Amino acid sequence: MKFLASDLDGTLFRDNKISEKDLDALRRLKAFGNKIIISTGRSLKGVNSILKEYPFEYDYLVMCNGGVIMDNRNNIIHEKSIPNKIQNRIIADFYDIGDSLIYYDDGNDTYMIENKLVDVSAVDADFFNHFSNRVTLEEALSSVSDSQIMSVFNVSQSIEKSELVREKLINEYDEYIEAFRNQVFVDIVAKNCSKGNAIMMILEDENKGVDSLYTVGDSMNDISMFKITNNSYTFNSVEELIKPYADNLVDHVFEVIEDMLR
């Protein structure tokens, strides 16, 4: 038995779809008795919005960059959240940083904090459809819930600005959180949470070693997956900074599965 751990956005879900070639390959992988782990920064609501339109059988969901692990019946195997006190401190500290916006997810829904000083006119309107709940800064700071994941992102889509935000988060909150750059999003999760750590928990539960694991992703938040196996893959089209962390370069997920089935 082999395990495929695949990122979702930018990896399986590209150009707002999962290709038929990738879907067919995933189904063949399952037909030969292997297991699939979807490993994403999304929460369950965001994952379901994709899998409802592009269904395939999976075995585990690693969500919120490792903050939540579920089985294929949506039973929570592991969960770790950012304490509300830390969440609110981060919101207060980063609300006015450049042209950035903040969202957070408490496990029930995702909330975008409105900021009228940030010009969003250049942002694709469809992007904001992901955030059905818009809240004011005051409403966000009055929340008493913990967060499974938070994210700070700049509307100018600058990788440089995102890296500066990530460094500032680590410098000021390293005791409490992990911060990963996912394209221009800086995803924030509880301390010691990562995709790699979550996948290791799954393998331990399955009593399997890392030799059985294949991973594929396209961004910095996937590097923790690459580091735990010698069967790691990323795309020829990704940032040059990411490529050295992966063992193999491909163009599509189905190519990874072809290697697994040889």
Describe this protein with a few key phrases.
29% helix; 8-stranded mixed beta sheet; Rossmann fold; 6-stranded mixed beta sheet; magnesium ion binding; 24% strand; alpha/beta; Hypothetical Protein, Haloacid Dehalogenase-like Hydrolase, Chain: A, domain 2; 262 residues
Describe this structure in words.
- It is a single chain.
- The chain has 262 residues and is of the alpha/beta class.
- The protein has two domains: 3-80 and 193-260, Rossmann fold, CATH 3.40.50; 84-190, Hypothetical Protein, Haloacid Dehalogenase-like Hydrolase, Chain: A, domain 2 (2-Layer Sandwich).
- It has helices at 20-31, 44-51, 84-94, 137-141, 159-173, 195-206, 223-226, 253-260; strands spanning 3-6, 35-39, 60-63, 68-71, 76-79, 100-105, 110-113, 133-135, 149-154, 177-182, 185-190, 213-216, 232-235, 248-250.
- It has an eight-stranded mixed sheet with strand order 5-4-3-2-1-12-13-14, sandwiched between helices.
- Helix 1 packs parallel to helix 8 (253-260).
- It comes from Clostridium beijerinckii.
- This is Cof-type HAD-IIB family hydrolase.
- One of its GO terms (molecular function) is magnesium ion binding.
Helices and strands in order:
Layout: E1 3-6, H1 20-31, E2 35-39, H2 44-51, E3 60-63, E4 68-71, E5 76-79, H3 84-94, E6 100-105, E7 110-113, E8 133-135, H4 137-141, E9 149-154, H5 159-173, E10 177-182, E11 185-190, H6 195-206, E12 213-216, H7 223-226, E13 232-235, E14 248-250, H8 253-260
Parallel strand pairs: 1-2, 1-12, 2-3, 7-8, 12-13, 13-14
Antiparallel strand pairs: 3-4, 4-5, 6-7, 6-9, 9-11, 10-11
